[in-house]
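RECORD TYPE: inverse folding
INPUT: structure tokens
STRUCTURE:
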């Protein structure tokens, strides 16, 4: 499978060239276009996981949504080569990541766009539900081998950590599990926390890669919401 990124970084589009019989997994709303010979199998999955790649994705996200179902598109080229394009909901960039068997990647759930079938996602690892609870975010753990697509609100910044690194939780896209981490208030003072919103940051330690997004969706939503007129009852 060959995947290229076009129209980036502001309005990125992922273009996947599938050989006959190849399958691309995609977040339910990500498919933008596809060749006529692509079979799309959309499964509404509940929170249980059956151990398959699809089941693990559905189980992870279903648990996050407190039992609600989740749509996963299974896009397969029938008979001959085909093209599929994917795009995220928010304007921003897309970052391909080649996952190796010896590496595990932690992904902020809304930053998952798509992947090859050799990759499994797990949302039931310890801390998946509470990792970024204050920001309303959840983490997926990706393992296996193949290409993975990350998307972001704004641009994606790749940081190579060797030592200590601190990031506002709203700006995290993904990070490698070779890094140790803990989430805490930016300041122990209540005034500082109040003035900085949630005031949650993640402290990374060790060696590994962190992917950041240059804009935080929650902060942007609050800024826009404050400018809107009040709703009429």
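DESIGNED SEQUENCE:
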């Amino acid at each position: 499978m060959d995947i290229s990124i076009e129209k980036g970084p502001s309005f990125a589009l992922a273009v996947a060239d599938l050989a006959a019989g190849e399958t691309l997994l995609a977040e339910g709303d990500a498919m933008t276009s596809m060749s006529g010979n692509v079979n799309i199998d959309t499964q509404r999955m509940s929170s249980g996981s059956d151990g398959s790649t699809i089941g693990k994705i559905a189980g992870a996200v279903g648990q996050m949504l407190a039992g609600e179902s989740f749509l996963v598109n299974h896009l397969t080229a029938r008979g001959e080569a085909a093209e599929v394009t994917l795009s995220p909901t928010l304007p921003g960039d897309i970052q391909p990541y080649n996952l190796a068997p010896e590496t595990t990647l932690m992904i902020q759930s809304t930053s998952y766009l798509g992947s090859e079938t050799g990759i499994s996602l797990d949302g039931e690892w310890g801390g998946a539900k509470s990792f970024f609870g204050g920001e309303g975010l959840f983490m997926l753990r990706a393992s296996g081998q193949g290409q993975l697509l990350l998307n972001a609100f704004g641009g994606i910044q790749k940081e190579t950590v060797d030592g200590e690194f601190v990031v506002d939780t709203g700006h995290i896209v993904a990070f490698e599990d070779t890094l140790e981490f803990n989430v805490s208030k930016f300041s122990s003072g209540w005034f500082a926390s109040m003035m900085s919103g949630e005031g949650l940051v993640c402290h990374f330690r060790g060696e590994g890669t962190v992917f950041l997004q240059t804009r935080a969706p929650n902060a942007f939503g609050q800024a826009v919401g404050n400018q809107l007129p009040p709703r009429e009852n």
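NOTES: The chain is about 10% helix and 50% strand.
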